[in-house]
Design goal:
Structural class: alpha+beta
Largest sheet: 2 strands, parallel
Strand content: 5-15%
Number of domains: 1
Number of helices: 2
Order of helices and strands: EHEH
Oligomer: single chain
Strand order of the largest sheet: 1-2
Length: 64
């Protein structure tokens, strides 16, 4: 399987990985990359940050 065929979940940390961060560049190059979005990248709320990746992953297609 090629990276362009895989669903890739990008999970930035504190600050949200700005436009020059490797995660942002990867997301821009691979059409199937999806970013987990947090309400506030500068002030993390543990409960919200903990469940966000699972919510995003549940939206990913599992078709083979």
């Amino acid at each position: 399987m090629r990276a362009s065929e895989a669903e890739i979940l990008v999970i930035p940390g504190l600050g949200g990985s700005g436009p020059d961060h490797w995660q942002s560049r990867l997301e821009a190059k691979i059409p199937t990359a999806r970013r987990v979005v947090q309400a506030d990248w500068e002030h993390p709320a543990l409960d919200a940050w903990r469940v966000a990746p699972g919510r995003k992953a549940s939206c990913v297609s599992l078709d083979s």
